[in-house]
Design goal:
Number of helices: 10
Distance between the termini: 62 Å
Helix content: 40-55%
Largest sheet: 5 strands, mixed, barrel
Length: 400
């Protein structure tokens, strides 16, 4: 800023723009803004430049470092979004704009609110309680899958299941997994495998997507159908980071369709391997017994063949029959013992389940971020903690 002989102030363009920037940025708090994308550029630098508009006006916006997330959301002209940011002025061109910190598709805030409300309601009814959870069978003979018949989730599930050599009979109930009303078809699939075609386990699954894509798995009608199922239900919806109401109410949650198949297939492969080893050991024992009997028979025959060969053959046949009967009994007893060992192993695993420990009166203490607290020194007075019991959590503050 310079002056004239008469004392008048003369501002430079940069000074004016800087003053306007200070005025604008100092007058407006960070805000949420909603609008329709007019133009958008996801720059190679990792930033996003766009215009937002409504029926009457438009405003420029920038989202620094938002290109990757923008691609995940599929941002494109014409989409309605909501953004949170600070109003600012770009001094170089003297244009005001909003610098966004986060962007979500329009309506996501309302969906999140509905999600939390339904989650709290069903939790209060006890639908998420560990005591309600039914164990998933180790070796299901029939598997009912409720999902889209032409989706990638079904292909991944079947491919991984086949890689483990699972011999179960897999039945598919085709249902839409996205869009308004899909939850009713998914609920009918769960009911079908309970009422019309009983199976050992039901898998409710679909691939990943946005909150809107997965929303039908957050509807109450599906949650109550899963809760009412007499057949154990395994929920595998979305990716690792996605959680739906179906996950909470199901008897078990796996993060992806492939993970659900790995859980089922892993149990099958382990039991198959143990059975194969048992059969191999049994054959080796039978061969050893047969070889020993044959050797003894040859010795006897070489010594007394001329005295009474017919009697000798008859005796040896009877002896072989007895050996065969003993071998069959030994095999039967061995398989029975293996089944009992497997049952004891399953009972031991169940006893080691952390939920069983919680039912005995123990509790898990963690900080508000979920990090376990292992020492009293890590919980000074005034620290907020979370205590997990077998039937829920309680938040508390350490007083002494």
């Amino acid at each position: 800023m310079t002056g004239t002989p008469t004392g008048e102030k003369i501002w430079t363009v940069s000074e004016v723009n800087r003053a306007v920037r200070d005025l604008v940025e100092g007058s407006f708090m960070p805000m949420w803004i909603a609008g329709e994308i007019g133009t958008i550029v996801l720059h190679n630098s990792g930033h996003v430049y766009l215009t937002l508009k409504d029926g009457r006006s438009q405003i420029r916006a920038c989202w620094f470092g938002g290109a990757a997330r923008g691609r995940e959301l599929g941002l494109a002209p014409g989409m309605a979004i909501e953004g949170f940011g600070q109003l600012s002025v770009y001094e170089v061109r003297g244009e005001y704009q909003i610098s966004l910190r986060t962007v979500r598709l329009a309506g996501v805030g309302d969906l999140q609110r509905r999600f939390e409300e339904l989650k709290a309601k069903l939790s209060a009814e006890g639908l998420f309680s560990p005591e309600r959870k039914k164990p998933i069978p180790l070796l299901p003979r029939t598997i009912g899958v409720v999902t889209s018949a032409d989706g990638a989730a079904l292909r991944d599930f079947l491919k991984v299941l086949a890689s483990f050599g699972v011999k179960a009979d897999v039945r598919i109930y085709p249902a839409p997994v996205q869009g308004a009303g899909a939850s009713r078809f998914l609920a009918r699939g769960v009911a079908f495998f309970n009422r019309s075609f009983p199976v050992d386990v039901i898998v409710v699954t679909r691939g990943g997507g946005s909150m809107e894509d997965l929303w039908e798995f957050n509807e109450e009608v599906l949650a109550r159908a899963i809760a009412a199922s007499q057949v154990p239900v395994l929920s595998a919806v979305g990716h690792e980071i996605d959680f739906t109401i179906s996950d909470f109410v199901a008897d078990r949650r796996e993060p992806t369709p492939s993970a659900a198949a790995q859980f089922i297939g892993g149990n099958f492969a382990e039991c198959t391997e143990k059975t194969a080893r048992a059969i191999k050991d049994m054959h080796a024992a039978l061969r050893a017994a047969t070889d020993g009997a044959e050797l003894r028979l040859r010795k006897v025959m070489s010594g007394v063949w001329r005295r009474d060969p017919v009697r000798l053959v008859s005796d040896r046949r009877q002896y072989l029959d007895e050996l065969s009967a003993r071998a069959e009994r030994a095999l039967s007893n061995w398989l029975r013992i293996q089944r009992e060992k497997t049952a004891r192993l399953a009972a031991t695993l169940e006893a080691l389940d952390v939920r069983r420990q919680l039912e005995r009166g123990y509790a898990i203490v963690s900080d508000r971020e979920g990090v376990p607290i292992r020492s009293a020194a890590d919980a000074p007075a005034g620290k907020e903690i979370s205590v997990r019991f077998f039937d829920g959590r309680k938040n508390a503050v350490v007083t002494e």
